[in-house]
Amino acid sequence: QVQLQESGPGLVKPSATLSLTCTVSGGSISNYYWSWIRQPPGKGLEWIGYIYNSGTTIYNPSLKSRVTISADTSKNQFSLELTSVTATDTAVYYCARDLRQHVQVGLDVWGQGTTVTVSS
Amino acid sequence: DIQMTQSPSSLSASVGDRVTITCRASQGIRNYLVWYQQKPGKVPKLLIYEASTLHSGVPSRFSGSGSGTDFTLTISSLQPEDVATYYCQKYNSAPWTFGQGTKVEIK
């Protein structure tokens, strides 16, 4: 049973860089699409981007200039960096895995989510 | 970018009612559509993928249909445990945009 766990600071200062890690247990990080999604308080879901096979990355154009997703296969982790954060980046951040290997079908395994607040 | 519009934004129905939620894409996305259920305070859960394929373990009262630009999620007989917000998401190409969500409550 694959499980995902997000980790990282819960409080980030404005203009700083938000850094989160998703640790994958119970399965390999290889061959799947791994996504980051966020949800501002009381609002809907926003897809941030994905990484596939540790090399292919695609980002939401609305965040592309500030986002980097990377992977560390030796640690079975993938990470999110979001630069120049503002209060509008305050959200619950989720990592998630696609249902099937090698194709994009839908996100069936999700982490529990981690709340990140941007505030001085 | 393709926009995903759900309707209604919220609905209230009685237990046992048939409930239909619509998701419309601003351009055709074939059947590259997913439905998620998010219960209050919980993580989103995959319900349906490829527009109409029921994910493993999801009750059969849930069904999805549609192709191209118009999609529906139907709950054939609403149950109290179905109180949640439902989101569609397209994945034919990036960005994998979500709809704004439909909140379902019990009358």
Report on the structure:
Chain A has 120 residues and is mostly beta strands. Chain A contains no helices and eleven strands. In chain A, 0% of the residues lie in helices and 52% in strands. In chain A, a hairpin with a 4-residue loop joins strand 7 and strand 8. The model of chain A has no long low-confidence stretch (mean pLDDT 96). Chain B has 107 residues and is mainly beta. Chain B has a six-stranded mixed sheet, with no helix packed on it. In chain B, strands 1-3-8-7 form a four-stranded antiparallel sheet, with no helix packed on it. In chain B, a hairpin with a 3-residue loop joins strand 5 and strand 6. The mean pLDDT of chain B is 97. Classes of the chains: A mainly beta (120), B mainly beta (107). Chains A and B meet through strand 5 and strand 10 of A and strand 4, strand 5 and strand 9 of B.
